[in-house]
Amino acid sequence: MTTLKFPENFLWGGAIAANQAEGAYLEDGKGLTVVDLLPTGEKRFDIMRGYISSLTPLPEEFYPAHEAIDFYHRYAEDIALFAEMGFKALRVSISWARIFPTGEDAVPNEAGLAFYDRLFDELLNHNIQPVVTLAHFDVPVHLIEKYGSWRHRKLVGLFEMYARTVLERYRNKVKYWMTFNEINMLLHLPFLGAGLVFQEGDNVKQIQYQAAHHQLVASALAVKACHELIPDAQIGCMLAAGSFYPYTCNPEDVYQGMEKDRESYFFIDVQSRGEYPGYARRFFRDHQLDIVMEPEDAQILKNNTVDYIGFSYYSSRTTSTDPEVIKNMTSGNVFGSVANPYLQASEWGWTIDPKGFRITANQLHDRYQKPLFVVENGLGAADEPAADGTIQDDYRIDYLQRHLAEMREAIEDGVDIIGYTSWGPIDIVSASSGEMRKRYGYIYTDRDNEGNGSLERSRKKSFDWYKQVIASNGADLGL
Protein backbone atom coordinates (compact mmCIF):
# COMPACT_ATOMS: atom_id res chain seq x y z
CA MET A 1 0.00 0.00 0.00
CA THR A 2 2.79 2.43 0.84
CA THR A 3 4.13 2.24 -2.72
CA LEU A 4 0.88 3.46 -4.26
CA LYS A 5 0.70 7.17 -4.98
CA PHE A 6 -1.80 9.88 -5.76
CA PRO A 7 -1.41 11.94 -8.94
CA GLU A 8 0.56 15.16 -8.92
CA ASN A 9 -1.73 18.20 -8.53
CA PHE A 10 -4.39 16.02 -6.86
CA LEU A 11 -7.07 18.33 -5.43
CA TRP A 12 -7.19 17.58 -1.70
CA GLY A 13 -9.76 19.52 0.32
CA GLY A 14 -13.22 19.56 1.82
CA ALA A 15 -16.83 20.24 0.89
CA ILE A 16 -19.68 22.26 2.40
CA ALA A 17 -23.01 23.61 1.11
CA ALA A 18 -24.46 27.10 1.33
CA ASN A 19 -27.65 25.93 3.01
CA GLN A 20 -25.83 23.93 5.71
CA ALA A 21 -23.12 26.44 6.53
CA GLU A 22 -23.84 30.06 5.56
CA GLY A 23 -26.82 31.00 7.73
CA ALA A 24 -27.79 34.67 7.21
CA TYR A 25 -30.89 33.23 5.58
CA LEU A 26 -32.55 36.56 4.73
CA GLU A 27 -29.52 38.85 4.92
CA ASP A 28 -28.50 41.20 2.10
CA GLY A 29 -31.62 40.53 0.09
CA LYS A 30 -31.54 36.73 -0.01
CA GLY A 31 -34.88 35.01 -0.67
CA LEU A 32 -36.26 31.93 1.00
CA THR A 33 -35.00 28.63 -0.31
CA VAL A 34 -35.91 24.96 0.21
CA VAL A 35 -33.81 24.19 3.29
CA ASP A 36 -35.04 27.35 5.04
CA LEU A 37 -38.32 25.41 5.43
CA LEU A 38 -36.84 22.27 7.00
CA PRO A 39 -37.24 22.21 10.79
CA THR A 40 -35.59 19.83 13.18
CA GLY A 41 -37.69 17.04 14.63
CA GLU A 42 -40.09 14.39 13.41
CA LYS A 43 -41.68 16.48 10.64
CA ARG A 44 -38.42 16.97 8.80
CA PHE A 45 -38.39 13.76 6.75
CA ASP A 46 -42.03 14.07 5.68
CA ILE A 47 -41.32 17.59 4.46
CA MET A 48 -38.21 16.45 2.60
CA ARG A 49 -40.35 13.80 0.90
CA GLY A 50 -42.68 16.51 -0.42
CA TYR A 51 -45.46 16.60 2.14
CA ILE A 52 -45.26 20.17 3.42
CA SER A 53 -48.12 22.24 4.81
CA SER A 54 -46.48 25.67 4.80
CA LEU A 55 -44.14 27.47 2.42
CA THR A 56 -43.23 29.99 5.11
CA PRO A 57 -41.25 29.29 8.31
CA LEU A 58 -43.51 28.62 11.30
CA PRO A 59 -42.80 30.45 14.57
CA GLU A 60 -43.11 27.32 16.69
CA GLU A 61 -40.42 25.43 14.74
CA PHE A 62 -36.61 25.62 14.86
CA TYR A 63 -34.95 25.89 11.46
CA PRO A 64 -31.22 25.15 11.81
CA ALA A 65 -30.32 26.50 8.35
CA HIS A 66 -31.39 30.03 9.31
CA GLU A 67 -28.16 30.59 11.21
CA ALA A 68 -26.31 27.34 10.50
CA ILE A 69 -22.66 27.92 11.51
CA ASP A 70 -22.64 31.55 10.28
CA PHE A 71 -20.12 30.86 7.53
CA TYR A 72 -21.55 33.94 5.81
CA HIS A 73 -19.76 36.11 8.35
CA ARG A 74 -16.99 33.76 9.49
CA TYR A 75 -15.73 32.42 6.16
CA ALA A 76 -12.33 34.14 6.42
CA GLU A 77 -11.66 32.50 9.80
CA ASP A 78 -12.71 29.11 8.46
CA ILE A 79 -10.74 29.39 5.23
CA ALA A 80 -7.63 30.24 7.27
CA LEU A 81 -8.08 26.92 9.09
CA PHE A 82 -8.57 25.07 5.80
CA ALA A 83 -5.40 26.70 4.49
CA GLU A 84 -3.56 25.59 7.64
CA MET A 85 -4.48 22.01 6.73
CA GLY A 86 -3.11 22.61 3.24
CA PHE A 87 -6.34 22.46 1.26
CA LYS A 88 -5.93 22.64 -2.51
CA ALA A 89 -9.70 22.91 -3.09
CA LEU A 90 -12.90 23.76 -1.26
CA ARG A 91 -16.21 22.66 -2.66
CA VAL A 92 -18.99 25.17 -1.94
CA SER A 93 -22.36 25.97 -3.44
CA ILE A 94 -23.87 29.25 -4.53
CA SER A 95 -27.31 29.94 -3.09
CA TRP A 96 -29.60 30.55 -6.07
CA ALA A 97 -31.85 32.69 -3.84
CA ARG A 98 -28.92 34.96 -2.90
CA ILE A 99 -28.44 35.81 -6.58
CA PHE A 100 -32.10 35.82 -7.68
CA PRO A 101 -34.18 36.06 -4.48
CA THR A 102 -37.43 35.05 -6.23
CA GLY A 103 -35.73 33.09 -8.98
CA GLU A 104 -37.16 35.33 -11.70
CA ASP A 105 -35.97 38.81 -10.72
CA ALA A 106 -35.24 41.21 -13.58
CA VAL A 107 -31.71 41.82 -12.31
CA PRO A 108 -29.50 39.79 -9.98
CA ASN A 109 -28.94 40.79 -6.37
CA GLU A 110 -25.58 42.58 -6.30
CA ALA A 111 -25.11 41.99 -2.57
CA GLY A 112 -25.34 38.26 -3.13
CA LEU A 113 -22.94 38.34 -6.06
CA ALA A 114 -20.50 40.44 -4.04
CA PHE A 115 -20.50 37.91 -1.17
CA TYR A 116 -19.30 35.12 -3.46
CA ASP A 117 -16.70 37.46 -4.97
CA ARG A 118 -15.32 37.93 -1.46
CA LEU A 119 -15.52 34.22 -0.70
CA PHE A 120 -13.73 33.14 -3.89
CA ASP A 121 -11.11 35.85 -3.51
CA GLU A 122 -10.39 34.67 0.03
CA LEU A 123 -9.96 31.10 -1.19
CA LEU A 124 -7.70 32.11 -4.06
CA ASN A 125 -5.60 34.27 -1.72
CA HIS A 126 -4.85 31.02 0.14
CA ASN A 127 -4.21 29.09 -3.11
CA ILE A 128 -7.40 27.10 -2.64
CA GLN A 129 -9.39 26.36 -5.79
CA PRO A 130 -13.16 26.93 -5.47
CA VAL A 131 -15.20 23.95 -6.68
CA VAL A 132 -18.68 25.38 -7.12
CA THR A 133 -22.04 23.60 -7.21
CA LEU A 134 -24.78 25.60 -8.90
CA ALA A 135 -27.69 23.93 -7.11
CA HIS A 136 -27.16 22.13 -3.80
CA PHE A 137 -30.66 21.31 -2.50
CA ASP A 138 -31.67 24.81 -3.44
CA VAL A 139 -34.78 26.21 -5.16
CA PRO A 140 -36.12 29.72 -4.44
CA VAL A 141 -39.43 29.23 -2.61
CA HIS A 142 -41.17 31.75 -4.89
CA LEU A 143 -40.66 29.31 -7.79
CA ILE A 144 -42.33 26.54 -5.78
CA GLU A 145 -45.31 28.77 -5.00
CA LYS A 146 -45.72 30.09 -8.54
CA TYR A 147 -44.72 27.16 -10.76
CA GLY A 148 -44.63 24.05 -8.60
CA SER A 149 -40.84 24.04 -8.85
CA TRP A 150 -39.12 21.70 -11.32
CA ARG A 151 -42.35 20.08 -12.49
CA HIS A 152 -42.75 23.22 -14.65
CA ARG A 153 -40.70 23.82 -17.81
CA LYS A 154 -40.31 27.48 -16.83
CA LEU A 155 -37.55 26.56 -14.37
CA VAL A 156 -35.27 25.40 -17.18
CA GLY A 157 -34.92 28.92 -18.55
CA LEU A 158 -34.73 30.51 -15.11
CA PHE A 159 -31.96 28.16 -14.06
CA GLU A 160 -30.07 28.84 -17.27
CA MET A 161 -30.33 32.58 -16.56
CA TYR A 162 -28.97 32.03 -13.05
CA ALA A 163 -26.17 29.75 -14.30
CA ARG A 164 -25.08 32.18 -17.00
CA THR A 165 -25.11 35.05 -14.50
CA VAL A 166 -22.73 33.38 -12.05
CA LEU A 167 -20.57 31.73 -14.71
CA GLU A 168 -19.99 35.11 -16.32
CA ARG A 169 -19.40 36.84 -12.99
CA TYR A 170 -16.85 34.34 -11.67
CA ARG A 171 -15.28 33.23 -14.95
CA ASN A 172 -11.82 34.38 -13.81
CA LYS A 173 -12.11 32.87 -10.33
CA VAL A 174 -13.72 29.44 -10.65
CA LYS A 175 -12.47 26.66 -12.93
CA TYR A 176 -14.36 23.68 -11.46
CA TRP A 177 -18.16 23.66 -11.56
CA MET A 178 -20.97 21.17 -10.93
CA THR A 179 -24.60 21.49 -11.90
CA PHE A 180 -26.94 19.68 -9.46
CA ASN A 181 -25.81 18.16 -6.18
CA GLU A 182 -26.81 14.49 -5.79
CA ILE A 183 -29.31 14.84 -8.62
CA ASN A 184 -30.70 11.36 -7.93
CA MET A 185 -31.95 12.57 -4.53
CA LEU A 186 -34.99 13.86 -6.42
CA LEU A 187 -36.35 10.28 -6.34
CA HIS A 188 -35.84 9.80 -2.60
CA LEU A 189 -36.38 13.20 -0.98
CA PRO A 190 -38.21 15.16 -3.71
CA PHE A 191 -38.71 18.41 -1.78
CA LEU A 192 -35.07 18.52 -0.69
CA GLY A 193 -33.78 17.53 -4.12
CA ALA A 194 -36.13 19.52 -6.34
CA GLY A 195 -38.57 21.57 -4.30
CA LEU A 196 -41.46 19.26 -5.20
CA VAL A 197 -44.62 19.42 -3.10
CA PHE A 198 -47.31 16.75 -3.49
CA GLN A 199 -51.03 16.84 -2.96
CA GLU A 200 -53.32 13.90 -2.34
CA GLY A 201 -54.03 12.13 -5.62
CA ASP A 202 -50.86 13.29 -7.38
CA ASN A 203 -49.05 10.82 -9.67
CA VAL A 204 -45.80 11.14 -7.76
CA LYS A 205 -43.63 9.16 -10.22
CA GLN A 206 -44.91 11.20 -13.16
CA ILE A 207 -44.09 14.46 -11.37
CA GLN A 208 -40.67 13.22 -10.27
CA TYR A 209 -39.52 12.07 -13.68
CA GLN A 210 -40.92 15.13 -15.44
CA ALA A 211 -38.99 17.26 -12.96
CA ALA A 212 -35.92 15.08 -13.55
CA HIS A 213 -36.17 15.74 -17.29
CA HIS A 214 -36.32 19.47 -16.68
CA GLN A 215 -33.28 19.31 -14.40
CA LEU A 216 -31.36 17.25 -16.95
CA VAL A 217 -32.07 19.77 -19.71
CA ALA A 218 -31.18 22.64 -17.37
CA SER A 219 -27.94 20.86 -16.45
CA ALA A 220 -27.04 20.47 -20.13
CA LEU A 221 -27.73 24.16 -20.76
CA ALA A 222 -25.47 25.07 -17.83
CA VAL A 223 -22.74 22.87 -19.34
CA LYS A 224 -23.22 24.67 -22.66
CA ALA A 225 -22.98 28.06 -20.96
CA CYS A 226 -19.83 27.05 -19.07
CA HIS A 227 -18.11 25.81 -22.22
CA GLU A 228 -18.99 29.04 -24.01
CA LEU A 229 -18.13 31.46 -21.21
CA ILE A 230 -15.15 29.72 -19.57
CA PRO A 231 -13.50 27.46 -22.18
CA ASP A 232 -10.70 26.47 -19.80
CA ALA A 233 -13.10 25.41 -17.02
CA GLN A 234 -14.47 21.95 -16.29
CA ILE A 235 -18.09 21.31 -15.37
CA GLY A 236 -19.44 18.05 -14.02
CA CYS A 237 -22.54 16.35 -12.69
CA MET A 238 -22.88 14.90 -9.20
CA LEU A 239 -24.27 11.55 -8.02
CA ALA A 240 -25.12 10.25 -4.57
CA ALA A 241 -23.23 7.01 -5.20
CA GLY A 242 -22.81 3.67 -3.48
CA SER A 243 -23.32 0.31 -5.14
CA PHE A 244 -26.24 -1.97 -4.33
CA TYR A 245 -25.07 -5.48 -3.47
CA PRO A 246 -27.45 -8.42 -3.99
CA TYR A 247 -28.06 -10.09 -0.63
CA THR A 248 -27.61 -13.52 -2.24
CA CYS A 249 -26.59 -14.95 -5.61
CA ASN A 250 -30.26 -15.64 -6.35
CA PRO A 251 -30.66 -14.12 -9.84
CA GLU A 252 -33.71 -12.22 -8.58
CA ASP A 253 -31.55 -10.48 -5.97
CA VAL A 254 -28.82 -9.81 -8.54
CA TYR A 255 -31.33 -8.32 -10.97
CA GLN A 256 -32.84 -6.15 -8.24
CA GLY A 257 -29.38 -4.86 -7.33
CA MET A 258 -28.88 -3.86 -10.96
CA GLU A 259 -32.26 -2.13 -11.05
CA LYS A 260 -31.53 -0.25 -7.84
CA ASP A 261 -28.21 0.97 -9.25
CA ARG A 262 -29.96 2.06 -12.43
CA GLU A 263 -32.33 4.31 -10.47
CA SER A 264 -29.28 6.47 -9.82
CA TYR A 265 -27.21 5.80 -12.94
CA PHE A 266 -30.16 6.94 -15.07
CA PHE A 267 -29.36 10.59 -14.32
CA ILE A 268 -25.63 10.27 -14.98
CA ASP A 269 -26.22 8.18 -18.12
CA VAL A 270 -28.09 11.16 -19.57
CA GLN A 271 -25.64 13.80 -18.33
CA SER A 272 -22.56 11.85 -19.41
CA ARG A 273 -23.76 10.08 -22.56
CA GLY A 274 -26.30 12.61 -23.74
CA GLU A 275 -29.38 10.45 -24.18
CA TYR A 276 -31.94 8.43 -22.29
CA PRO A 277 -30.91 4.77 -21.87
CA GLY A 278 -33.21 2.02 -23.12
CA TYR A 279 -34.00 0.80 -19.62
CA ALA A 280 -35.33 4.25 -18.69
CA ARG A 281 -37.58 4.36 -21.73
CA ARG A 282 -38.93 0.94 -20.81
CA PHE A 283 -39.48 2.11 -17.23
CA PHE A 284 -41.56 5.03 -18.52
CA ARG A 285 -43.64 2.65 -20.69
CA ASP A 286 -44.13 0.07 -17.96
CA HIS A 287 -45.31 2.74 -15.49
CA GLN A 288 -47.41 4.67 -18.03
CA LEU A 289 -45.32 7.79 -17.55
CA ASP A 290 -45.69 10.41 -20.27
CA ILE A 291 -42.60 12.62 -20.01
CA VAL A 292 -43.11 15.81 -22.00
CA MET A 293 -39.98 16.64 -23.98
CA GLU A 294 -39.54 19.59 -26.28
CA PRO A 295 -38.26 18.89 -29.83
CA GLU A 296 -34.91 20.53 -29.13
CA ASP A 297 -34.26 18.62 -25.90
CA ALA A 298 -32.60 15.59 -27.52
CA GLN A 299 -29.96 17.77 -29.19
CA ILE A 300 -29.43 19.86 -26.06
CA LEU A 301 -28.70 16.71 -24.06
CA LYS A 302 -26.56 15.14 -26.79
CA ASN A 303 -24.39 18.17 -27.45
CA ASN A 304 -23.70 19.21 -23.86
CA THR A 305 -22.36 16.31 -21.84
CA VAL A 306 -20.34 16.81 -18.65
CA ASP A 307 -16.56 16.90 -18.40
CA TYR A 308 -16.30 14.79 -15.24
CA ILE A 309 -18.41 12.79 -12.80
CA GLY A 310 -18.59 14.16 -9.26
CA PHE A 311 -19.91 11.77 -6.64
CA SER A 312 -20.48 11.30 -2.94
CA TYR A 313 -19.68 8.01 -1.27
CA TYR A 314 -20.57 7.23 2.31
CA SER A 315 -21.70 3.62 2.23
CA SER A 316 -22.72 0.70 0.09
CA ARG A 317 -26.25 -0.71 0.12
CA THR A 318 -27.68 -4.22 0.03
CA THR A 319 -30.96 -5.36 -1.49
CA SER A 320 -33.07 -8.51 -1.47
CA THR A 321 -36.32 -9.86 -2.87
CA ASP A 322 -36.87 -12.12 0.16
CA PRO A 323 -39.67 -10.66 2.35
CA GLU A 324 -38.06 -12.11 5.47
CA VAL A 325 -34.70 -10.50 4.71
CA ILE A 326 -36.30 -7.16 3.86
CA LYS A 327 -37.61 -6.99 7.43
CA ASN A 328 -34.00 -6.39 8.53
CA MET A 329 -33.56 -2.89 7.08
CA THR A 330 -30.98 -0.48 8.44
CA SER A 331 -32.16 2.89 9.70
CA GLY A 332 -30.82 6.31 8.87
CA ASN A 333 -29.73 5.97 5.24
CA VAL A 334 -32.02 7.78 2.80
CA PHE A 335 -31.65 5.03 0.20
CA GLY A 336 -32.76 2.15 2.41
CA SER A 337 -30.68 -0.99 2.71
CA VAL A 338 -30.90 -4.48 4.07
CA ALA A 339 -28.39 -4.91 6.88
CA ASN A 340 -25.18 -6.36 5.48
CA PRO A 341 -23.97 -9.09 7.89
CA TYR A 342 -20.34 -8.53 6.85
CA LEU A 343 -20.22 -4.85 7.70
CA GLN A 344 -20.61 -2.53 10.66
CA ALA A 345 -22.70 0.65 10.65
CA SER A 346 -22.30 4.15 12.03
CA GLU A 347 -24.41 5.50 14.89
CA TRP A 348 -26.85 6.79 12.24
CA GLY A 349 -27.18 3.41 10.51
CA TRP A 350 -24.88 4.11 7.57
CA THR A 351 -22.97 0.99 6.50
CA ILE A 352 -19.19 1.44 6.73
CA ASP A 353 -17.66 -0.15 3.64
CA PRO A 354 -14.24 1.13 2.46
CA LYS A 355 -13.94 -1.64 -0.15
CA GLY A 356 -17.26 -0.48 -1.55
CA PHE A 357 -15.61 2.89 -2.26
CA ARG A 358 -13.12 1.19 -4.57
CA ILE A 359 -15.87 -0.89 -6.16
CA THR A 360 -18.06 2.17 -6.78
CA ALA A 361 -15.19 4.20 -8.25
CA ASN A 362 -14.29 1.35 -10.61
CA GLN A 363 -17.91 0.90 -11.68
CA LEU A 364 -18.30 4.60 -12.45
CA HIS A 365 -15.04 4.66 -14.39
CA ASP A 366 -15.90 1.52 -16.35
CA ARG A 367 -19.35 2.87 -17.17
CA TYR A 368 -18.49 6.42 -18.21
CA GLN A 369 -14.77 6.57 -19.06
CA LYS A 370 -14.59 10.12 -17.72
CA PRO A 371 -12.54 11.61 -14.87
CA LEU A 372 -14.10 11.22 -11.44
CA PHE A 373 -14.09 13.75 -8.60
CA VAL A 374 -14.84 12.48 -5.09
CA VAL A 375 -16.68 15.49 -3.71
CA GLU A 376 -18.16 13.97 -0.53
CA ASN A 377 -17.01 11.24 1.84
CA GLY A 378 -16.84 11.12 5.61
CA LEU A 379 -18.14 9.82 8.91
CA GLY A 380 -20.93 11.48 10.86
CA ALA A 381 -20.36 10.95 14.57
CA ALA A 382 -21.27 12.50 17.93
CA ASP A 383 -17.94 14.05 18.93
CA GLU A 384 -17.58 14.91 22.61
CA PRO A 385 -14.87 17.31 23.80
CA ALA A 386 -12.75 15.91 26.63
CA ALA A 387 -12.29 17.77 29.93
CA ASP A 388 -9.29 19.62 28.48
CA GLY A 389 -11.29 20.62 25.39
CA THR A 390 -9.55 18.25 22.97
CA ILE A 391 -11.53 15.99 20.65
CA GLN A 392 -9.98 12.58 20.10
CA ASP A 393 -11.84 11.47 16.98
CA ASP A 394 -9.75 8.38 16.22
CA TYR A 395 -12.87 6.65 14.82
CA ARG A 396 -13.04 9.33 12.10
CA ILE A 397 -9.36 8.97 11.30
CA ASP A 398 -9.83 5.20 11.05
CA TYR A 399 -12.81 5.59 8.68
CA LEU A 400 -10.98 8.05 6.44
CA GLN A 401 -7.68 6.12 6.46
CA ARG A 402 -9.40 3.01 5.20
CA HIS A 403 -11.40 4.87 2.56
CA LEU A 404 -8.39 6.80 1.28
CA ALA A 405 -6.40 3.56 1.07
CA GLU A 406 -9.11 2.07 -1.13
CA MET A 407 -9.27 5.25 -3.24
CA ARG A 408 -5.53 4.90 -3.76
CA GLU A 409 -6.10 1.32 -4.89
CA ALA A 410 -8.79 2.48 -7.32
CA ILE A 411 -6.32 4.95 -8.85
CA GLU A 412 -3.86 2.06 -9.21
CA ASP A 413 -6.67 0.13 -10.92
CA GLY A 414 -6.61 2.83 -13.59
CA VAL A 415 -9.47 4.98 -12.33
CA ASP A 416 -8.90 8.66 -13.17
CA ILE A 417 -9.68 10.64 -9.99
CA ILE A 418 -8.88 14.35 -10.02
CA GLY A 419 -9.56 15.20 -6.40
CA TYR A 420 -11.05 14.38 -3.01
CA THR A 421 -13.07 16.86 -0.94
CA SER A 422 -14.23 15.17 2.24
CA TRP A 423 -17.65 16.15 3.51
CA GLY A 424 -18.00 18.76 6.21
CA PRO A 425 -14.36 19.58 7.06
CA ILE A 426 -15.92 21.89 9.63
CA ASP A 427 -19.01 20.76 11.57
CA ILE A 428 -22.15 21.98 9.79
CA VAL A 429 -25.88 21.25 9.96
CA SER A 430 -26.76 17.72 8.83
CA ALA A 431 -28.75 17.74 5.59
CA SER A 432 -30.76 14.65 6.50
CA SER A 433 -31.53 15.12 10.19
CA GLY A 434 -30.88 18.84 10.71
CA GLU A 435 -28.70 17.97 13.69
CA MET A 436 -25.42 19.54 14.74
CA ARG A 437 -24.72 16.45 16.83
CA LYS A 438 -24.00 14.49 13.63
CA ARG A 439 -20.53 15.90 13.01
CA TYR A 440 -18.15 15.25 10.11
CA GLY A 441 -15.50 17.89 10.62
CA TYR A 442 -11.81 18.16 11.39
CA ILE A 443 -12.89 21.43 13.00
CA TYR A 444 -15.38 21.44 15.87
CA THR A 445 -18.16 24.06 15.88
CA ASP A 446 -19.57 24.91 19.31
CA ARG A 447 -23.27 24.59 18.56
CA ASP A 448 -25.91 22.06 19.57
CA ASN A 449 -29.11 20.73 18.03
CA GLU A 450 -31.19 23.50 19.62
CA GLY A 451 -29.02 26.29 18.25
CA ASN A 452 -27.14 26.97 21.49
CA GLY A 453 -23.40 27.58 21.62
CA SER A 454 -20.73 30.16 20.93
CA LEU A 455 -20.00 28.97 17.34
CA GLU A 456 -16.34 28.98 18.37
CA ARG A 457 -14.14 26.79 16.16
CA SER A 458 -11.52 24.35 17.49
CA ARG A 459 -9.27 21.71 15.95
CA LYS A 460 -9.93 17.99 16.43
CA LYS A 461 -7.27 15.29 16.38
CA SER A 462 -8.20 14.55 12.76
CA PHE A 463 -7.17 18.11 11.82
CA ASP A 464 -3.46 17.31 12.15
CA TRP A 465 -3.93 13.88 10.62
CA TYR A 466 -5.54 15.29 7.44
CA LYS A 467 -2.89 18.03 7.31
CA GLN A 468 -0.24 15.29 7.12
CA VAL A 469 -2.18 13.38 4.47
CA ILE A 470 -2.28 16.46 2.24
CA ALA A 471 1.35 17.42 2.91
CA SER A 472 2.44 13.94 1.80
CA ASN A 473 0.01 13.90 -1.17
CA GLY A 474 -1.59 10.84 0.36
CA ALA A 475 1.65 8.90 0.79
CA ASP A 476 1.29 9.04 4.58
CA LEU A 477 -2.18 7.93 5.66
CA GLY A 478 -0.95 7.05 9.12
CA LEU A 479 -1.77 3.38 8.63
TrEMBL record:
SUPFAM superfamilies for the chain: (Trans)glycosidases
PROSITE patterns: GLYCOSYL_HYDROL_F1_1, GLYCOSYL_HYDROL_F1_2
UniProt cross-references to Pfam families, sorted A to Z: Glyco_hydro_1
Entry GO CC: cytosol
Active site annotation, chain numbering: 376
Matches recorded under Gene3D superfamilies: Glycosidases (3.20.20.80)
Any one GO MF annotation of this record: beta-glucosidase activity
Keywords for this protein: Glycosidase, Hydrolase
Domain of life, source organism: Bacteria
BP GO terms, sorted: carbohydrate catabolic process
InterPro entries membership: GH, GH_1_N_CS, Glyco_hydro_1, Glyco_hydro_1_AS
Family to which the UniProt record says this protein belongs: Belongs to the glycosyl hydrolase 1 family.
NCBIfam families: PRK09593.1, PRK09852.1
Name used for this protein in its record: Amygdalase
Native organism taxonomy: Bacteria, Bacillati, Bacillota, Bacilli, Bacillales
